[in-house]
Amino acid sequence: MVIMTPKESAKHAANYRWKYRAMTHEERFWLHVSRRRDDQCWNWKHYTRPNGYAYFGVDGVQIAAHRFSWSLVNGLIPEKMQICHKCDNKKCCNPNHLFLGTCKENIQDAVIKGLRNTPIGERQGFSFLTGEVVEKIREMAKAGGRTQKEIANRFGIKPMHAQSIISRRIWKHIP
Prior knowledge:
The protein is an alpha+beta fold. The protein has seven helices and six strands; from the N terminus they run H-H-E-E-E-E-H-E-E-H-H-H-H.
């Protein structure tokens, strides 16, 4: 450990700030990344937000580090597009692990990989129906003789809710 006087410490800090300011955004960015082999994750070494993503300051604007990394290699990110991780490591800035995708594709990728554990059906906290009730609603609709409004009233739900269940727009996981 090097012990400096306050005057030496201030001089060292001033020199560091001067060197830091003289760097390009790209040079400064890569200082914060632990670069390894191309097939490995290149993790962000500094602050991450509570959601796990790393951010980098450019001209007073905070940019997600993985987005900055992708744009250094590939150019501007098209409007309404997201930068997705193949490796699912939020700190990874390796451009080889990043790909361009829509919001829908990003969510589908997360669901397929089991990263979005969104409760469905009766496991969802606001549900008051059960899988058995949903099956009965669909059986009654299939049998005919009753309107959706009558079926909805029987189970204490709105007709539009019954229609969504019958058409399998919701409760898709119930046969």
